[in-house]
Amino acid sequence: MAFVQDTLIIEGSIATNNLDANAMASRADQNVLGREALVYRAAVAGVGNTDVTLQQAVRVLAVWCVKTGGAGAGGDTITVSNGASAITNAMVTNVADTTVVRATSVDRTNANIAAGGTLRYTGAGAATNAAIVYVLAARNSGA
C-alpha cells in the first residue's frame, strides 16, 4: 500500500507513475478489478465545523475517529455530513484519549458527495472534544 496526499492506493491496481484520472476512474458495481479506496483525514479541534471541499465525487463507506483531546466530557460528539445533511450518526466521543470510535450508521441518501461538494466534520460538546477523523470513501461517478 502507498499513500498519495492522504489517499490510500492499493499497489498493483495502478501502474507505477500512472496516477491520473483514467487510473482512478470510477468502477461499476460487480466489477472484477475492485475499487480504489480513498481515505480523508481531518483534525477536529473541539466544537464547530471543519469543512473540506472535495475535488471528486465520492461515496462515503465508513467513518471512524481517534480521540486526541484527553478524556471526553458529557455531550461530546462528532458527526460527518454532506454539507448540512448528516451522513453518520453522532459518534459519542466522551471517551478516554486514544480511543477509537466508529460511526454506527451511514445514511445512504446523504453518503454521495458531488465533486465540489462539502465534506463537513462537526464537533459538539466541550473544548476537549478533539479527534482525528477518518472517512473511507470510493470514487463515485454517479454522485
Task: Report what the structure shows.
- This protein has no helices and 12 strands.
- It has 143 residues and is an all-beta fold.
- It has a domain at 40-139: Jelly Rolls (Sandwich), CATH 2.60.120.
- The strands form 3 sheets. Strands 3, 5, 9, 10 and 12 form a 5-stranded antiparallel beta sheet that branches. Strands 4, 6, 7, 8 and 11 form a 5-stranded antiparallel beta sheet that branches. Strands 1-2 form a two-stranded antiparallel ribbon.
- Strand 6 and strand 7 (85-86) form a beta hairpin.
- The two termini are 27 Å apart.
Short overview:
The chain is mainly β and 143 residues long. Helix content is 0%, strand content 44%.
- Number of helices, counting only DSSP H or I runs of 4 residues or more: 0
Oligomer: single chain
- Uncertain stretches: 1-5
Gap from first CA to last CA: 27 Å
Give the radius of gyration. 16 Å
Beta content: 35-45%
Number of distinct beta strands: 12
**Which structural class do the helices and strands define?**
mainly beta
What is the third-level CATH name, the topology of the domain at 40-139? Jelly Rolls
CATH architecture descriptor of the domain at 40-139: Sandwich
**Helix fraction?**
under 10%
Mean pLDDT reading: 82
Anisotropy-based shape: elongated
CATH class of the domain at 40-139: Mainly Beta
Q: Main beta sheet, described?
A: 5 strands, antiparallel
Elements, N to C (H/E): EEEEEEEEEEEE
List the helices and strands and how they pair.
Blueprint: E1 2-4, E2 7-9, E3 37-45, E4 48-53, E5 58-67, E6 77-82, E7 85-86, E8 91-92, E9 100-102, E10 112-113, E11 118-124, E12 130-139
Antiparallel strand pairs: 1-2, 3-12, 4-11, 5-9, 5-10, 5-12, 6-7, 6-8, 6-11
